[in-house]
Design a protein that fits this description.
Layout: H1 15-32, E1 39-45, E2 52-61, E3 65-69, H2 77-83, E4 88-92, E5 95-106, H3 108-111, H4 116-124, E6 129-135, H5 143-150
Length: 158
């Protein structure tokens, strides 16, 4: 999911980059995103369609939960779904986290939550926005969490 277009404060990926990522890059990232941090998979439900979506992202632990840089800007469907109170899970390193309460952060306020190598890259790309998402208490699961976990095949084919 991405939205190409203009941004006053930061650069948003051009539309053609969005299309390439949706068709190719996201599919490749999706093969690795459950296993290889900082890659992760957001599982979210469309706020109007009710469809379930899987979106590969780079998610970094924060005191509240996880931070995700908004490389396409804040006008992305997955964020709108979370803001609407939609059910959201993040699978990172094969652990399922329930996410809620997105807080949009701009500039250094959000970038400080990310590792130095990521901050440098995002500054070069002029990506100023980060969303900080609250994660539920570790160890609490629901039947839906267990269903997501069962769909993740074990590592090494076990």
């Amino acid at each position: 999911y991405g939205a190409g277009g203009d941004s006053v404060d930061g650069m948003v990926a051009p539309y053609w980059v969005t299309r390439v990522n949706l068709r190719f890059t996201n599919k490749v990232m999706g093969l690795l995103s459950d296993d290889v941090p900082p890659l992760a998979t957001l599982h979210h439900v469309g706020r109007t369609s009710g469809r379930r979506f899987r979106t590969p992202v780079m998610a970094f632990p924060t005191p509240r939960g996880f931070a995700i840089a908004l490389t396409y800007g804040p006008d992305v469907q997955w964020l709108h779904n979370i803001e609407a109170g939609g059910e959201t899970r993040l699978v990172r390193a094969r652990h399922v986290h329930r996410l809620s309460d997105p807080v949009l952060l701009h500039g250094d306020e959000g970038l400080r939550l990310l590792p130095a190598w990521t901050r440098r890259s995002l500054r070069v790309l002029r990506v100023p926005d980060v969303v900080d998402l609250a994660s539920s208490t570790p160890g609490t699961t629901t039947p839906d969490d267990e269903a997501v976990s069962r769909r993740i095949p074990p590592r090494g084919g076990r």
